[in-house]
Design a protein that fits this description.
Elements (H helix, E strand, L loop, with lengths): L19 E6 L8 E4 L8 E4 L8 E6 L1 E2 L2 E2 L4 E4 L12 E8 L12 E8 L3 H8 L4 E4 L6 E7 L1 H4 L5 E7 L7 E11 L11 E3 L6 E5 L5 E7 L4 E5 L3 E3 L6 E9 L2 E9 L1
Antiparallel strand pairs: 1-13, 2-7, 3-4, 4-13, 5-6, 7-12, 8-11, 8-13, 9-10, 9-12, 14-15, 15-18, 16-17, 16-19, 19-20
Bound molecules: calcium ion (CA) (2 copies).
One calcium ion (CA) binds next to strand 4.
Length: 264
C-alpha cells in the first residue's frame, strides 16, 4: 500500500485548523485504502458521492441492502500505515458516519466497528479485532455523526498504525457512509483555545455566552456529536432541546472554547 501524503488542515473546520495532523482522509481525491470482505457476497466498501449527504463530497460507502435483496455485510476498509514513531501522547482519531435513511423507516441501523492495529501481521490484526475502539449501531438516520477517540495507547510510538473500519453485525438496512477521518494531536488544539463563560448551567430556556469578541459562532451538539443548534449571537434559545447534557463550542475567529452544559 502507498503512504498517503498528509494534507494539513484541509478537513478541519475552524478550531481544529492548527491541529497537528498525522493522517487525514476525505475520500475526495485518490485514496490508498485496502479492502477485506469476510462475508459471502462480492460487494465491499467503495468511494461514491451520495445525495443523502451532498456536503460530504465523496465518501466511503458500504451496503447492507441492494435491489436484489438484503446483504449481511462484513466489510473492512483499511487505512494505509500511519507513522507515529515520534509521537508519544494525545493521539486522537475522529471520523464521521451516517445512514441515509430516516430514523422512522427503521432502515438506519447500520453497525460499525473501528479498530487500530500495529501493522498488518496476523497477531497485530487479531489483537486489534479483540478490542474495538468503536463498536455500535447508528442511533438515528439522516445525520453524519462525528466520533472522536483517544487512541494514544494503541497508536503512539507505532511506525505502522492502521485504521480498520468494519461494516458488520447488521442486515437489510441500506448503506453506511464514512468520511472525514483524521488522526491528530489533540493537545495541539489547545493553542487555539479561549475561555468563555456559559451560563446558567443547568439552563432551561436561554444559554448566555460571555466571551471576548463580537463575531461569535455557537454550535451545540449532543454527546454523540449531532449538531442541534447553531447561532451567531451570545443569547442562545435552547427551549426546544430535550433535557440532558450537551457540548457547546464557541468560535471567535480562529479561536474556540468548548465545554458541557446541562439542559433542564
Ligand atoms: Ca468527503
Ligand atoms: Ca462483502
Amino acid at each position: 500500500m502507498k503512504k498517503l501524503l498528509l494534507s494539513l488542515s484541509v478537513v478541519f473546520t475552524c478550531g481544529l485548523s492548527k491541529a497537528q495532523v498525522y493522517f487525514s482522509e476525505t475520500f475526495d481525491s485518490t485514496a490508498a485504502w485496502g479492502l477485506l470482505s469476510l462475508d459471502t457476497d462480492t460487494l465491499n466498501w467503495g468511494i461514491y458521492t451520495t445525495q443523502a449527504f451532498p456536503d460530504q463530497g465523496a465518501v466511503a460507502l458500504s451496503q447492507s441492502w441492494v435491489q436484489a435483496g438484503p446483504l449481511t455485510p462484513d466489510n473492512f476498509i483499511i487505512s494505509p500505515p500511519i507513522d507515529l514513531t515520534n509521537v508519544s501522547s494525545n493521539v486522537s482519531l475522529s471520523f464521521k458516519i451516517g445512514s441515509p435513511e430516516a430514523t422512522s423507516t427503521g432502515w438506519h441501523e447500520e453497525f460499525l466497528s473501528v479498530y487500530v492495529s500495529d501493522g498488518a501481521s496476523q497477531a497485530a490484526v487479531t489483537a486489534a479485532l479483540a478490542a474495538p475502539v468503536h463498536s455500535q449501531v447508528l442511533a438515528e438516520g439522516e445525520i453524519m455523526y462525528t466520533f472522536t477517540y483517544d487512541i494514544t495507547a494503541l497508536a503512539a510510538g507505532k511506525d505502522s498504525a492502521m485504521l480498520w473500519f468494519r461494516h458488520h453485525n447488521c442486515t437489510d438496512e441500506n448503506f453506511i457512509v464514512l468520511d472525514d477521518i483524521s488522526v491528530y494531536n489533540s493537545a495541539s488544539l489547545n493553542e487555539n483555545t479561549i475561555s468563555a463563560n456559559v451560563y446558567p448551567n443547568p439552563a432551561k430556556d436561554v444559554l448566555n455566552i460571555a466571551v471576548e469578541g463580537d463575531e461569535v459562532e455557537v454550535i451545540i451538539s449532543t454527546l454523540e456529536g449531532k449538531v442541534v443548534v447553531t447561532d451567531k449571537t451570545k443569547t442562545i434559545d435552547i427551549a426546544n432541546l430535550n433535557a440532558g447534557m450537551y457540548i457547546y463550542k464557541v468560535k471567535v475567529g480562529d479561536k474556540i472554547a468548548t465545554g458541557n452544559f446541562v439542559k433542564n
